[in-house]
């Protein structure tokens, strides 16, 4: 029998072929799935922030949001969203949206910080809305109490974002994203603007001190300290059960087979 | 001859104990007892060893854990919870995790071992089911095993609720919601378990005594009975060379089985400990203390309660208001109580149902290959597919997040799949089993395919088959024939109605269904002629220089 | 050897003293090598050098185990409890946990691996066979056992003496009852507490955790607040438990008044601000996943979804009843207060609930 024929009759041949096929498919799929980000427009150096924003807006946003931000069938009106909302959406890369779907996804931002501030300044002229929180306001998080932040986080945030900010499912394909990459400013902005499905947590009902504590807690979570070992995504018993069955029982059964196997 | 003088060959210590206990006869009978050796027989051992590990690590944990719901302000070393009010139970669990050296390790080993305990019981149950090891005389052991599984589920639930953290507390609230939905007695049962409304101040300490005293005691008792039966009935074995219904072939207790089984205990313990060292499980410090107005996204119970969680999620919203006075809630009672009750009842009744259908009242010590009992195997895979669908449904929000799907779509998919998929799995499994039976039959009648094609000098191609070796024959021949009962007559020749007509009719129909499609078992003559032909073809092949592999065999005669 | 009864000589295996003869049991034969089973020789059976090598390997495994046990013992005392260490794939973790755990785990594992390697390579692996007898004892033995029962039962007289039998059954039937009755004080009798919460007229609504009163103008459209009655901490202190938290927890959301399709009562909202119970009517999880744009409220436990713009009706999932709404208004100072208590029991169903 040739080696190929011997291989075909090996017990593990079908398993190997399956893994090979799976590998091919996953590599192919991830290659096709790369998101395309549009190029940012060039800005002249002598314009004001609002003018810069106007130019960027006309180029990158007006096709979906209308030339005056009044909204079209492809995108909602931007009147009254406020600079904070724009800064949040653009700095997290959610806007411009790459592909339509149940929810916008975070990705690499298409505009740098200066351009983002310009867009925010321009869109803020469409109508009054939440302003970008000041550095002092946001910076308070470093002095806040982490345990108070934990209490506030568990009451106001964990039900959507999960106990460790790993994210959670909402209805009909929407989801509350993971907080692992959010900066303190972005967290503050999200709370006061309520992006997409997220409700608003105004500064009067969830005070800046409370928000600072929450941000402090989220920063603590994102330090990824895992005193018990590998954290399996911080998603709870589902991933723990997966590891048990695949790794735990798998290893034990391999040992059991070894124990009963014939010795040469 | 006086027997008070010690025989010189008997060690003094042995004689000292033996004179008082008198165990020599028992030792003589049992020290070289033979145990069959197959890896699939070690699955139950994983469960047993995990239980021992649970007892050991659990005892350590009881030295520091406080089962009290009294509120305290945390002042231990885990900073993100400092100053937070919490129950003493939660605070003591934090103390074990962060202030007791090795405490985190012990806690994690304990929790991993609990997951292993139940997983091993499930896999062991599947092995016993698919090989027909529950048949006479082992029906009692099957029932004991189901009892152990139930106790394990309760022990696990009560155990992970003890830390009183947010995740397990939500699970307790769900349990209280299920209890209070019971008709007539619901609110009473709720008040009695919790000492009043939920959460009260009693439930944690009550769960504690259930978890460390009542359940381990019951499990120990059942495990002892279970192992005693295995010992006295002797373990089953797979069909193979030299193995019959009337013997046990394997290795003696001392030294081989002790080394292998004992060694496996250390391996299970070692793997569980390594998991406890390297992989976080139940990070209660991240969940936070329980308060009944907080919840986390992705609330799931431990894996073994997952099927109940799934059934609760996919159940449609059915509730009845009776005369505006009483509320009856099938949307809670069916998935949480009736479904698991049915599942366990069916599993418990199964050995008796099968022996009624097949009429088989013989003792069975040789195991069935799953392919040789296609209906049983198909029923098993069908039930397993139902269970797995429920299990996945229990994590539908995690699945939705991981694969970017809609939880609503997943829930609807599960509702339909639970009805459509199991029968499909039944049909497919049956077909596969019958196909494998055909494969075996072909091997017996024509020999094994070698993959070498011979071109004959007179033209034409033929594949060389090698004869089945003597060692392989028992496995291929080990298939039971089950009778198909004749359809009963409604009235006999004298016009008298047949007693128990409906039962007999059902039994006849079921037996026909049980054996449907089974291939005929070949006679020895057919087998021998088939092997003869294969042998001839092989010799012909050798003449042409075709050599399918050879092995150096030392038979028992020249050993 | 003497036939006289000797108090020091009562060990009499051959029954030579005049005790009644009993039948001897058939001892199971000791196992013998199995016939008809192919036996393959291992390298360690034929080659003494291979056997010696295997022996050294087994010893190495046991030695490794001892080494790791020592690592555990030393690390337990040498590594300070709070030490953190960064490990790839794990992140920052407790040095104690990972070092103690890995060393202990390997120590245990190597004992097992050593024992099994020893069994596989060096212990005889000739398959033995032992006889299996039918479990069911011989008919005569069964009859003898049953006879023993019959004789004993007859001697007890329980069959004949009906008076004894009946009064015994009566006593035994009653005897367990105290055990059941003793459980009565496990809890109080339910008295309808499930129907009531702390909410009542003019009770201020305060934010959870920070316990601050709320003005309607501070709540923009789309805002979500987890709220409690203002006296929640007092009640907790008084009752010494968290029960009221699990009943009085509410959610406040604001929508545009034109978006409210229906409510559970006329003017139960305040200028678009509605208050609903935070406890799911399915099995009682707190429910707070509010989707601002759709006004849907999702429960994370079993995915029941309620439409807060439409009287809290369930629109998906296993919950069958709407979320109870709390009627609210403002007091003279302009803070939000409840108009009245809940008009139906909150939380999961129970038998006596009725409407």
Overview of this protein structure:
The complex is a heterotrimer of chains A (264), B (559) and C (355). By secondary structure, chain A is mainly alpha-helical. Among the domains of chain A are: 49-124, Cytochrome c-like domain (Cytochrome Bc1 Complex, Chain D, domain 2), CATH 1.10.760; 135-222, Orthogonal Bundle (Cytochrome Bc1 Complex, Chain D, domain 2), CATH 1.10.760.10. Chain A is built from twelve helices and two strands; from the N terminus they run H-H-H-H-H-H-H-H-H-E-E-H-H-H. Chain A has helices spanning 3-9, 13-32, 49-60, 62-65, 82-91, 113-124, 135-139, 146-156, 158-161, 184-193, 208-222, 237-260; strands at 168-169, 175-176. Chain A has a two-stranded antiparallel ribbon. In chain A, strand 1 and strand 2 form a beta hairpin. With 559 residues, chain B is mostly helical. Helices cover 59% and strands 6% of the residues of chain B. Chain B is built from 19 helices and eight strands. Mean pLDDT of chain B is 91; it is low at 550-559. Chain C is an alpha+beta fold. Among the domains of chain C are: 43-129; 195-353, Rieske [2Fe-2S] iron-sulphur domain (Rieske Iron-sulfur Protein, 3-layer Sandwich), CATH 2.102.10. Helices cover 31% and strands 15% of the residues of chain C. Chain C contains eight helices and 15 strands. In chain C, the strands form five sheets. In chain C, strands 5-6-7-8-13 form a five-stranded antiparallel beta sheet. Chain C is flat, with a radius of gyration of 39 Å. The model of chain C is unreliable at 1-28 (pLDDT under 50). At the B-C interface, helix 2, helix 5, helix 7, helix 8 and strand 4 of B face helix 3, strand 4 and helix 8 of C.
Greatest interface and its residue counts?
Answer: B-C, 126 and 106 residues
Name the CATH homologous superfamily of the domain at 195-353 in chain C. Answer: Rieske [2Fe-2S] iron-sulphur domain
Low-pLDDT runs of chain A: 35-46
Radius of gyration of chain A using CA atoms only: 25 Å
* Count of β-strands of chain A: 2
**Rg over alpha carbons of chain C:** 39 Å
Describe the structure using short key phrases.
heterotrimer; B: 559 residues; 19 helices; globular; C: 355 residues; 5-stranded antiparallel beta sheet; flat
Concise structural overview:
Chain A is mainly alpha-helical. Chain A has twelve helices and two strands, in the order H-H-H-H-H-H-H-H-H-E-E-H-H-H.
